[in-house]
UniProtKB/TrEMBL annotation, chain A:
Gene Ontology terms: biological process: antibiotic biosynthetic process
Organism of provenance: Streptomyces echinoruber
Protein's UniProt name: Actinorhodin polyketide synthase acyl carrier protein
Pfam families: PP-binding
Gene Ontology MF annotations: phosphopantetheine binding
Ranges for domain Carrier: 1-80
Highest taxon, organism lineage: Bacteria
Keyword set, alphabetical order: Phosphopantetheine, Phosphoprotein
UniProt keyword Phosphoprotein, yes or no: yes
TrEMBL record, chain B:
Family the UniProt entry places it in: Belongs to the thiolase-like superfamily. Beta-ketoacyl-ACP synthases family.
MF terms in GO: 3-oxoacyl-[acyl-carrier-protein] synthase activity
Transferase is among the record's keywords: yes
PROSITE patterns per record: KS3_2
Source lineage: Bacteria, Bacillati, Actinomycetota, Actinomycetes, Kitasatosporales
Annotated protein name in UniProt: Actinorhodin polyketide putative beta-ketoacyl synthase 2
Keyword list, A-Z: Acyltransferase, Transferase
InterPro entries membership: Beta-ketoacyl_synthase, Ketoacyl_synth_C, Ketoacyl_synth_N, PKS_Beta-ketoAc_synthase_dom, Thiolase-like
Transferase listed as a keyword: yes
GO BP: any one term: fatty acid biosynthetic process
Amino acid sequence: MQFTLDDLKRILLESAGADESVDLDGDILDRRWDELGYESLALLETGSRIEREYGVSFDETAVTEAETPRALLEIVNAQLGASTAA
Amino acid sequence: MSPIAVITGLGVAAPNGLGVKEFWTATLRGESGIGRIERFDASRYPARLAGQVRGFVAEEHLPSRLLPQTDRMTRLALVAADWALEDAGVRPDELPPYDMGVVTASSCGGFEFGQNELRNLWSKGSQYVSAYQSFAWFYAVNSGQISIRNGMKGPSGVVVSDQAGGLDAVAQARRQIRRGTPLIVSGSVDASICPWGWVAQLAGGRLSTSEDPARAYVPFDARACGHVPGEGGAILVVEDAEAARRRGARPYGEIAGYGSTFDPRPDSGRERGLRRAIELALADAGIDAGDVDVVFADAAALPAEDRAEAEALTAVFGTRGVPVTAPKTMTGRLYSGAAPLDLAAAVLSLADGQIPPTVNVRPVADYGLDLVTGAPRPAELRTALVLARGHGGFNSAMVVRAAA
């Protein structure tokens, strides 16, 4: 199973909506979360939804330390790989 | 001389009208917003009527970032604040952030949001509880969200004293203006018409269980049997009169006086505090009872409470000494939102020279009140007194005067 940018965008929108000045369909992979209009609580909620939906579990600080969507995708996919391997 | 605080903008979300114009038109027509609860299935509850704000679609007014993190009361408050600022002609992004503050009231916080998250907790588990529960239910959340949305970093806060809080918050706004902040967004919106909010209200034992919207909430009437709860309220822009004048604003009126008291212990035998709150407000405004042209009553609709309010009014103003009205008979009691909505109605009355009616009520004669019933009463109005009592002993009174 792969966690894609589209999956992330869907969960972001459900968890926290989108800033009016930001186009989530643009090139956002390497933009910082604060540039995209998301603060730590929005990421906490997003992380919590990813955990629920994908049956993964993050370290407490993992989600907030991932500074960009690409970093978050990597963390989730590493987890998914790990759980597949287990 | 300390700065004068004036009301320069109104934003209204009321059960009988969404928007100032809609609310005021309906209020002068005597149109009630009380009806059967539509927001949840109330068929198995002993009280089934409420004053609900209809036609409010948050998505049409607020960005998607705010929707997952806001209770209904916060959405209504944010939109009412937008309207009030627009009405005042204030563009917050053009003013220094520390020159603007936010002081609202709250009676119970965001109950519907809290209920949904509690349901997630017990039915699914803690990992299903929204991270936004950390603040979305909280008493101060409306002040916080209005502050963030509009970049207002001046003195801010929340006052929690049940229905009296609606006046106490505006009084606190006036204090901050006197201390030097030119603009405070104040007033209050409450909304807790959800099962959790409802059982909490029912537990208080003060709700009307009547099924008839025209009979359910009849303060000062021999048939008074408790109140119908409502949701909504009003957000007010309060400004230093001098700052408002400099930017060419047209004030609705001045917050001229305020008094608040707390009741003595019920078994003390001492007089309750409402009369003294009224007298403090009149003294603070530097006026006599004869200067008050209309009173907006608290109107609890419990016989003992109605009598206590009538006694306080007749003690200060004499028997049938001043016109009294309770337009909240058209909205239900809005808790912390009630008095700000009455302040809005009061300044609109001053402008229009019309006292809005109390509906559905046949006043008990020996209360000695000149209650305005049935239709608006034309009158020369300069000064209005708004009363609000909170459960547990809070009494507040505020004098508003037409802008000079």
